[in-house]
């Protein structure tokens, strides 16, 4: 673990240096001297813009073990004129949550919606708090009347509040435990958001089972694998779950259930 930390610090320093050397004083409206040893921005100049000491910034670039606040790193990212992907990479290297991280888009573009409805297997789109943003007729049939009746269908609400869940989802207790651990993992970078805190408060207050597993602090990555449903009309059905993350919607995930024959 210690070597991984050192490696991340070195990678962070190398990334900062490479991008600092691409920025010229002119790009930031700074005065330029007639003679400069480097064509890019000096460490002292970037440190001044970012509101930290030159020594402190030098230590960061050298890969030393120093603490960086999210807002300081955000100022550095802005000064370096990092794009969205570059900024995300910077904060990932630093193991820090970006304070200016974009909110997940609440609207879904037409291409993503079309892809959901064109699927021939049960397919649905979840947002950050697992609201069902879109689904196809096959998913509606699988979940029986729930998707037709719910005004704002939410997968966690279904698992813990709907009486049909324990009948439809085979081995409900194990699946429910896992989805709580998956939800904790997926929202780990958004725990400061009031939307997430309010959602968790509601779930822990109203579901004894959710509260029990939430307090266990288990974390699991969303995995594929077999999912079994005991459908009241169609009998037992077996699927392989596959999850995709649309590139333009960081807060959404597309879940497909591939039938196993």
From TrEMBL:
Residues 15-87 form the HTH cro/C1-type domain. Transmembrane segments: none annotated. CDD domains: HTH_XRE (cd00093). InterPro entries: Cro/C1-type_HTH (IPR001387), Lambda_DNA-bd_dom_sf (IPR010982), MLTR_LBD (IPR041413). It holds the Pfam family HTH_31. Signal peptide: none annotated. PANTHER family: BLL4672 PROTEIN (PTHR35010:SF2), BLL4672 PROTEIN-RELATED (PTHR35010). This is Helix-turn-helix domain-containing protein. It comes from Serratia silvae.
């Amino acid at each position: 673990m210690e070597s991984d930390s050192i490696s991340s610090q070195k990678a962070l320093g190398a990334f900062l240096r490479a991008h600092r050397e691409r920025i010229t004083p002119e790009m930031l409206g700074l005065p330029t001297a007639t003679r400069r040893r480097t064509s890019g921005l000096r460490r002292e100049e970037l440190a001044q813009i970012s509101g930290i000491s030159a020594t402190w910034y030098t230590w960061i670039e050298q890969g030393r073990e120093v603490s960086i606040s999210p807002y300081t790193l955000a100022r550095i990212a802005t000064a370096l004129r990092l794009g969205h992907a570059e900024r995300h990479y910077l904060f990932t290297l630093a193991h820090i949550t970006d304070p200016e991280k974009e909110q997940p888009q609440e609207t879904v573009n037409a291409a993503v919606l079309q892809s959901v409805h064109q699927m021939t297997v049960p397919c649905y789109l979840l947002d950050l708090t697992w609201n069902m943003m879109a689904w196809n007729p096959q998913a509606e049939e699988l979940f029986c009347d729930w998707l037709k009746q719910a005004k704002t269908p939410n997968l966690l609400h279904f698992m813990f509040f709907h009486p049909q869940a324990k009948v439809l989802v085979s081995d409900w207790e194990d699946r429910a435990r896992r989805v709580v651990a998956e939800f904790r993992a997926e929202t780990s970078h958004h725990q400061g958001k009031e939307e997430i805190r309010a959602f968790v408060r509601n779930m822990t207050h109203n579901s004894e089972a959710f509260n029990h597993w939430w307090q266990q602090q288990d974390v699991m990555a969303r995995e594929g694998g077999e999912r079994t449903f005991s459908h009241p009309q169609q009998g037992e059905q077996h699927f392989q779950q596959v999850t995709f993350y649309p590139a333009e919607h960081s807060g959404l995930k597309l879940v497909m259930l591939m039938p196993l024959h």
